[in-house]
Design brief:
Distance between the termini: 32 Å
Bound molecules: pyridoxal-5'-phosphate
Radius of gyration: 22 Å
Largest sheet: 7 strands, mixed
Structural class: alpha/beta
Shape: globular
Number of helices: 13
Strand content: 5-15%
Strand order of the largest sheet: 2-8-7-6-5-3-4
Amino acid sequence: MIYIDNAATTPVSPLAAKAVSECMTSIFGNPSSLHSAGQRAAQVLFEARQTVAQCLGCTAREIYFTSGGSEADNQAIRSAAHAGKKKNKLHIISAKTEHHAVLRTLERLKTEGFDVQLLDTDENGAVTAQQVRDAITDETCLVTVMYANNEIGTVNPIADIGAVCREKGVPFHTDAVQASGHIPIDVQKDSIDMLSLSAHKFHGPKGVGVLFARKGTALESLIDGGAQERGKRAGTENIPAIVGMAQALKESCGEMDSIAAQQIAIRDRLIEGLARIPHSALNGYRQKRLPNNVSFCFEDVEGESLLMMLDEKGICASSGSACTSGSLEPSHVLLAIGRTRETAQGSLRLSLSKYNTMQEAEYIIQTVTQTVEYLRSFSPAWKDKVSGIKPYVF
Ligand SMILES: *Cc1c(COP(=O)(O)O)cnc(C)c1O
């Protein structure tokens, strides 16, 4: 089986799995307990916090452990919004291509009276610092723009956007779930005030993530209870998962350059090979994309059918976001970059990990090429185009 759906989730690295397992069996104390079993757990938690902080370029006290990327996004956005409301600032700036964890949170805030402005992206899915500058008003309480897109791999100019927000004194949050562990992130250089990441996107366990919140940033707790995470996230800490996440992040950041180089070579071969399929289009930039993302639309191909057939041939891929798969709505990201509803249905996302090989890429190119041709042979719309009745889109 070829697993090439790592933007949905990644296999846990052997070292992270070992760290989780060792922690589960030997460090069971509650870090809030004063006895030695508890203090051992508190020590392990502290070390994990330091490791994560080092990878992001912040201090351990600025790290808040969460149940994952969605929770971190929710907490960051709600916190900034409600802090803004106290100062009568109800304007929030974001982008059309954000993850649903951001978009749905913003939808809810609209019902609380917030004015949410979703920036258009260019045809590759990026927003510019100038767009953000033009959108900021005296009422803006938050800018939230994702680091890298989960469907099409587009990397936003985060340092530039951060600089604008810093200059204007507006809190800046970025959903870095697809970027962390894959491309270099430095919350100082990028002027980031809040950042979300999720362990299972970089070979860590599921159900654990991080919210980085710069010292002095107003944070509200989504869960009331004990004083864990300095009062910002109640509930006994998931120590094994946190330790596994820290191990996975350390590994990913340590090997980042060599893995990125290896992935870019495979990514570019896949793009080159799939671009040869007639009437196909690459989604996102050719270069300014994540090292591990390949995203295409194939005209007159049903994405779901393509995925099922690829699965039968041993390839686990995706049409885009795992969260929209199964629903017949076309991807909001593909619509935002200007794909029609029809062409957006024929999408394929291949997202690599360090375990994918060039040999797999060759098999994938061959298999996708054959399958697209096969599926088109059943498509009435395709036949109309072949016979010249209708024009091709791409
Ligand atoms: C996966 C993902 C999330 C959600 O993270 P979970 O840990 O699964 O809640 C949020 N944003 C982006 C960009 C993602 O890819």
